[in-house]
């Protein structure tokens, strides 16, 4: 029987609650599909600060590098917001992404037909939406130097090099080939030099993919078009901070940020995590939506472990559960039949599996 | 009889069409309210490049500085996108903003009850929305140096100083005092040093406004919250590029980017313009929505000329026209009774006045 080594980072806030449900679901499909998973837990974020004094202990990096894939919850919370920047949870996360070399962050935004009424957008606007946002994750203004804050003046640097753009561009074009063959590259080339290089490089790269259509859109317009007519998009490729903003916008198209999974991939171990944060305001209340994490686990099965059947089973179970009207609180505004808490949602998915 | 000197910049694309309608409406209310307006036209953007060789002729700056207020359409178009950066329409606009010292860009997003069905968002989500976005306009990554693109590596600098943040913060707090007394400052302080200075400075400034509530939100979350629950916002204050993205998102809440006006103010002449662009794809077709420009003209009457009665008349006429089911094409998706072209929309507003 195949065994996979999964590294687990639960993190802060609702992190532990939602990751526990995903593990429950993973175990259920492993049993059905005849493979086994062994988990090893590592610390990152606020809990790592409290326990070890730093937001990203060396053991975490090493442990994840030695695993087949990493399932991650979320980090951060007000408690640590006043620490010096190098000791904050977010700094640990960014360093983690960098050390893992996960330059490509894939954030699919797919509408479940069962949830077409859960969004604040009209059903006819969102029905059938299937967008893949490809966000560059270890460059741009998140990592650019110099960066400084002397209390009077502060600055950051948004920087990209051609190889960085080519690398993420290739990911987008390759993904588009397996989908509707359309890439929309988002930038602010009418204002920013760094966006001009981004655009020129994408245009050059497009020559290698004559079967894929490349278009460009300014980031302000893209934010608007995601709300106006999200169905127009297939693959969106963009830089780190624009991707951060646009994928959160896309989550609303889909109905709740509690639904969107992500995969962060590079040349080493891939990381799977919900796109939402640690939601300290609802931590410990047992009402968090574990679905984004559970779908992230399904992505992990599909992309890192090649266990497609197991991934399918999870996705089918989620659809069935939603179809039967089960909702977590975040999704309950418009059409819930039964509102479940975090654990109940995990349990019922296991039942349906 | 009072006479006001208005500088007019029509610009490119649909610019001339929409500004012409606004002038028509301005003349109608001037007549009713017993003041007169004299207009002088100046060049900027693509048309300035074609006519004078540069996107911002010196006469434009001088002329606008010598006027009581400036009404501006929009600039830009593919035709000029391949010119060297210093010769592009957008470069002219940015230089114009800088020379005018218009650091505060006010972008109100108000739902007309009459248009509550025109948005892609559900009516119950948007009914009653009344947001004022205060965007810093002459700093941040738009103007930060160093900036460079050598074809292999390119970068821009997102920079703010404390006085720049205080200045725009004051604008936001003062506006909030006349509204619901709540300011939400949007940044990315969990990642960016420049945002940390922004946040710290806003917190300090808030002490001078104990009657106004200050909250902070990360930009990714703000983009999402604008779609999830736009009614939660009163005044939003943010930096240049975040404001660019968020105000376009807000325009969809309101139903169409063809509706949102803006005022750019500083210590010199204020500029009034729609937040939308020059829309080259529909230029000359006579279908552009002139309402954002007409509402901008109303803002000009109110804020620069203190002609409140005239401003009220325009706003009332627009509401009545919308109530009677008149729509331009961009608004026609959900509930139009009669679809008008650009000139017809201007005409009917004059009729109602
Ligand atoms: C927590 C934060 C640093 C992070 C980011 O901005 O990348 C988060 O918003 C995300 O999108 O994963
Ligand atoms: C045309 C462009 C330079 C401009 C901007 O980004 O400021 C526009 O999008 C706006 O919002 O006024």
Automatic annotation (TrEMBL), chains A, B:
Listed cofactors: Mg(2+); Mn(2+)
Pathway membership: Amino-acid biosynthesis; L-leucine biosynthesis; L-leucine from 3-methyl-2-oxobutanoate: step 3/4
Residues where NAD(+) binds: 77-90, 277-289
GO BP annotation list: L-leucine biosynthetic process
Residues flagged as site, Important for catalysis: 142, 188
Binding site for substrate: 97, 107, 135, 220
CC per GO annotation: cytosol
NCBIfam families on file: leuB
Stated role: Catalyzes the oxidation of 3-carboxy-2-hydroxy-4-methylpentanoate (3-isopropylmalate) to 3-carboxy-4-methyl-2-oxopentanoate. The product decarboxylates to 4-methyl-2 oxopentanoate.
Family to which this protein belongs: Belongs to the isocitrate and isopropylmalate dehydrogenases family. LeuB type 1 subfamily.
Name of the protein this chain belongs to: 3-isopropylmalate dehydrogenase
Gene of this entry: leuB2
């Amino acid at each position: 029987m195949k065994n996979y080594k999964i590294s687990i980072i639960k993190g802060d806030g609702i992190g532990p609650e939602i990751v526990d449900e995903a593990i429950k679901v993973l175990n259920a499909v492993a049993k059905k599909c005849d493979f086994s998973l062994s988990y090893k837990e590592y610390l990152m974020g606020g809990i790592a600060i409290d326990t070890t004094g730093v937001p990203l202990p060396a053991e975490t990096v090493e442990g994840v590098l030695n695993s087949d894939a990493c399932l991650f919850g979320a980090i951060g919370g007000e408690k640590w917001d006043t620490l010096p920047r190098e000791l904050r949870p977010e700094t640990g996360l960014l360093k983690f992404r960098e050390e893992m070399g996960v330059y490509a962050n894939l954030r699919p935004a797919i509408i479940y037909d069962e949830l077409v009424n859960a969004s604040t957008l009209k059903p006819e606007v969102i029905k059938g939406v299937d967008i893949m946002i490809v966000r560059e994750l270890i460059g741009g203004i998140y990592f650019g130097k110099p960066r400084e804050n002397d209390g009077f003046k502060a600055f950051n640097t948004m920087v990209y090099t051609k190889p960085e753009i080519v690398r993420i561009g290739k990911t987008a074009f390759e993904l588009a080939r397996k989908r509707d063959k359309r890439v929309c590259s988002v930038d602010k080339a009418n204002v920013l030099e760094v966006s001009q290089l981004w655009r020129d490089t994408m245009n050059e790269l497009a020559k290698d993919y004559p079967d894929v259509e490349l278009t460009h859109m300014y980031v302000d317009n893209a934010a608007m078009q995601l709300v106006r007519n999200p169905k127009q998009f297939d693959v969106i490729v963009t830089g780190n901070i624009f991707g951060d903003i646009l994928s959160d916008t896309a989550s609303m198209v889909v109905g709740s940020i509690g639904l969107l999974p992500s995969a962060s991939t590079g040349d080493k171990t891939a990381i799977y995590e919900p796109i939402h944060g640690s939601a300290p305001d609802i931590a410990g209340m047992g009402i968090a939506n574990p679905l984004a994490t559970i779908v992230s686990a399904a992505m992990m099965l599909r992309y890192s472990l090649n266990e497609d059947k197991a991934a399918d089973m999870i996705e089918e179970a989620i659809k069935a559960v939603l179809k039967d009207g089960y909702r977590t609180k975040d999704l309950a505004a418009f059409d819930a039949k039964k509102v479940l808490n975090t654990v109940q949602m995990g349990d019922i998915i296991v039942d349906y599996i």
